[in-house]
Amino acid sequence: IEWKTKLAEHRRRNLRESLRELKSRKDRMDKRLETRSNAKLELRERLLTAPTPADEKHTTPSILSSALSASYTMTQSERDALLARKKANHERHASQKVLERRNALHTLYMNARDFIVTEQALTDAVERAFHPDNKQFDNEAKRGLNVWNLGYPETVKELLDTANKEDTGKALLRYIGYAELTDKRMKRLGEELTGGKM
Known about the structure:
Shape: extended
Order of helices and strands: HHHHHHHH
Helix content: 55-70%
Number of strands: 0
Low-confidence stretches: none
Distance between the termini: 74 Å
């Protein structure tokens, strides 16, 4: 019991000292921040009240004081037109956001059939991916263990050259028909027209 009492006393003393240290550290930091802030305010006031430098005075274009003090106020009809335009913009933006949200929800719903939500589905997916007979990474030359066996992904330049049927240095790619090139575009177009994933 005496040992537990000593331990509790040590804990209390350490807590007391650490709280005091934290308080003094906070006070020091607050004082430092206040000093820095006051110095910045003094510098700002000095710069604001300083006279215009000679180089700036001689290079500033001449502007009439009447033009400087002139202020424009909108008429009621201009204000109403501006408010109507802003309201129409806001409503259009809100309806576009609702449409995008609905489209995202529909895409999520269409993709939900591929989600892994049970342990059995996870086990099946792992089995499919790592099965010895999985041929998704094989090429003509050898059996592949990962996606790098299929070669490096196409660069943006190669994709653009293929789309524009320019010389890519690959003889067969120049004779690919438009059906292969536009397959993805047609799928995307169909998704836009039907309003859902295909």
